[in-house]
Amino acid sequence: MSLEKNRRHAPRRVSVAYEEDKAWIGFYRCSGDPAVAAELIQHLDADPDLKRAHPALYLRCRQTVRRHQERQARAKRIGQFVRLAIGIAVAAPLAALRRALHLGRDIAVECLPETHAEPAVRRARRLATESEFAHQREDFASQDGSTGARQAGDANGTEESRSPKAA
Prior knowledge:
Among the domains are: 2-67, no CATH class; 119-162, no CATH class. It contains nine helices and no strands. The chain has helices at 2-9, 16-30, 34-46, 48-53, 55-111, 119-129, 131-144, 146-156, 159-162. Helix 7 (131-144) runs antiparallel to helix 8.
């Protein structure tokens, strides 16, 4: 029994050729990965003897790289289609809605009623009707003649004072 234990733990002497074969078998297993396949193709292209010694590995790597390129091209076409479809189905209607709302906003602003006159004009009209200020305006109009009359019309806010004929 002690001999069996020693044999299990004793390091086995393996030849370099066996290790190389194990490494190449590992490459065969990993050749489905596009990055590994590209590296193997580059390595095999650099050494024609290795390329002749492992033609199946070389062909499998080429096939993997070609399939990867085809997948990328297909994904690119699908992406372009999806971008186009989203642009037509979502982005274009949103842009049209935005333009319509922008134009609608301008139309709505134009449809709003006129803003009221400035508060100072309303206040001046109210003050012009009060007796104290009406008396002072008459005194001023009598001192200045025609200028006072025109200013009194301006204070009342009448249309006559705003027209070019009155000026």
